[in-house]
Amino acid sequence: MYDAVCNRGLRKLREYVVQCLIYSAVVLVSAVFIWLLIDLLRGGLSHLSWEFVTELPRDAGRAGGIASILISTLLILLVAVLTAVPVAWMTAILLAEFVAIGSWFGKTVRFSLYVLAGVPSIVFGLFGNAFFCVYLGLGFSILSGGLTLACMLLPILTSTAEAGLRAVSHTYRLAASALGLSRAAALLHLILPAAAPAMAAGLLLGIGRALAETAALLFTSGYAERMPDSLLDSGRALALHIFDLSMNVPGGDEPAYASALVLVSLLLGINILAMKFAYGLQRSKLML
Amino acid sequence: MPIDQWLPGMLRAGALIALLVMSFILIFLIGESWPVLSKLSIAQLGTDSSWHPLEGAYNLMPMLTATVLASTGALLLAIPLGLASALFTVFYAPSCLAISYKRLIELLAGIPSVVFGFWGLTVLVPLLNQWQPPGASLLAGILVLTLMILPTVTVMAHAALAAVPVELVRSAAALGLSRFGTIQGVMLPAAKAGITAGIILAGARALGETMAVLMVAGNVVQYPETVFDPVRTLAANIALETAYAMGDHRAVLFVSGLLLMGLIMVLAAMAEALGKRQHV
C-alpha cells in the first residue's frame, strides 16, 4: 500500500519534472531567438534609411549605401534562376510524367539530384571556381556566381516541382486522355496549371536559398563593391557584403546590421509568400 | 501538332543536363585534387607536422578534429532542445501556442548563415570574451551551429511524431498511461527512425556549414584543449585560403572539399535509409 502511494508520487513528480524541462527548453529557444531578432532590428533600424538603399557604398562600405550591391545580388539571382529553372522544371516534368518511377534513367537522375542536394555550399564554391572561373575563363564574375548558384538550385527546384506535379490528382490525366487530349496538351493546359502553385513555392524557396548564400559566392562572384558594368564584371552579393563588413572592415558594424536587416526582411517576405503558395502541401518537406 | 514528338526528347535533354552537372562536380573536384592524390600520399594529410601549406606541410587532422568537435557539440545541444521543442508542439502546448512556436522555428530556419555568424560575432563573442578570453572559440562556433541546426532537428522530429498512428496514442490512453509514459513508451520508439534521420541530417548540415563558423570560431589551426580555444574547421579553411592558394596547396583544399562531401554523402544516405524505414 505504502509502496503504491510512493510510486504514484514518484511518477507524478517525474511528469512534473519532464514538463518543466520541456517548457524551459522552449522558453530558452524563444528567448535566444527573440534576442537575436531584437538585436537585428535595433542595430539595423538606426542605420537604415531610404538613402542607404539607393546610394553607392563609400569608404569600403562604412558610409553610403548598398545600391550597387543590391543590383549585383539581383543580377546573380537572375542568372541563377534563368539557367536553373528551365533545366529543373524540364527534369521534373520528365520524372513525374514521362518516366516510370522505377526506371533506370529516372532512378539515376533522382539519385544524382539527391546527392547534389547534400553537397555543402562551400564545395559548390570550389567547383564553381574551378569550372566557371578558371576552366571556362569567366573569372570572378556575376555570371560565374550565378551559374554556381544555378547548380545549387537544381535539386531544390526539381524536387519541389516533381512533388507538385505528382500531387496533381490522377483523375486529371485520365479525364484528359478520355477526351482525346494528347499528353503534351494535357500537360500544358491541365497538369502544369494545377501544379503551378507548388512550382512557384519551390521557385521562391530556391530564390531564398540563393539570396542567403555566401560560401558558394566567396570565390566565384568576387568582391567588387562598385556598380557592375556587365555580367562578366565582378559583383558583391548582399550576404557577402555583410560578411566583408563584419570581418574585414573595422567600424563596419552599423552598415552590416542594416544590410542584415534588409537581407532578413527580403527572405522573410519570400518565405511567407512561398508558404502561402505551398498551403496544403507538406510544409516540412519544402522547408528542409 | 508535332509537339508530342519532340517534347519527351527535349525533357530528356534537360534531365541529362542535371546529370551532367553532378558528374562535372565530381570530375572537377577529383581532377583538381589529382596532383595531391597521385603525388603525395593520403597518409601525409594525417601525418605531416602541421598545416603550413606554403612550406609544403599539409596536416588536415587538426581541422578535421575541429569540424567533428564543433558538429558533435552542436548536436549535443540541439538534440535535447529540438526534441523538447517538437514534444512541446505535439503534446504540451495548447494549439495556438504550438502554431506560433512552429512559426518561430520556421523563421529561425529562414535566417541565413551569414546573419547568424554576424550576430555571433557582434553579440556572442564579446560576451564569451568577458567570461573566458579570447571569445572567438570552439564554444562560440558550437553555440551558433546549435541555433542553425535546431530547426532541422525540430521539424523532422515533429513530422515523425505527428506521423505516429493515432491508434497507438489511443491505446496508450486506454491503458491509462501518463503523458510522459505515452511519450517514453509509445511515441519515441515509434518515431525513432524519423527522429534519428533528422539528427543525422542536422549533423550533416553542421559539418558543411562554413560562414557562421568561420566568423565566430577564431580560425587558429590547432587541436583545442578546452572549448574556449579558437579552432578552424575544414570548411572555414577552404573559404579562407582558396582565394590565394596555388599548386599543391590548392589541390589539398580540393581534397578537403572532397572529404567533406564524402562525409556528408554518407550521412545523407544513412538519413535517407532511416527515413524510408519510418514510412513502412
Task: Please describe the structure with a list of short key phrases separated by commas or semicolons.
heterodimer; A: 288 residues; mainly alpha; MetI-like fold; 2 strands; 1% strand; B: 280 residues; two-stranded antiparallel ribbon; 12 helices
General description of the model:
The complex is a heterodimer of chains A (288) and B (280). Chain A contains 11 helices and 2 strands. Chain A is an all-alpha fold and 288 residues long. Chain A folds into 2 domains: 2-45; 69-287, MetI-like fold (Orthogonal Bundle). A two-stranded antiparallel sheet of chain A has the order 1-2. Chain B folds into 2 domains: 3-39; 47-279, Orthogonal Bundle (MetI-like fold), CATH 1.10.3720. In chain B, 78% of the residues lie in helices and 1% in strands. Chain B contains 12 helices and 2 strands; from the N terminus they run H-H-E-E-H-H-H-H-H-H-H-H-H-H. Chain B has a two-stranded antiparallel sheet with strand order 1-2. In chain B, helix 1 (3-38) crosses helix 12 (247-279) and helix 3 packs across helix 6 (138-162). The two termini of chain B are 44 Å apart. The mean pLDDT of chain B is 89. Classes of the chains: A mainly alpha (288), B mainly alpha (280). At the A-B interface, helix 1, helix 3, helix 4, helix 5 and helix 6 of A face helix 1, helix 3, helix 4, helix 5 and helix 6 of B.
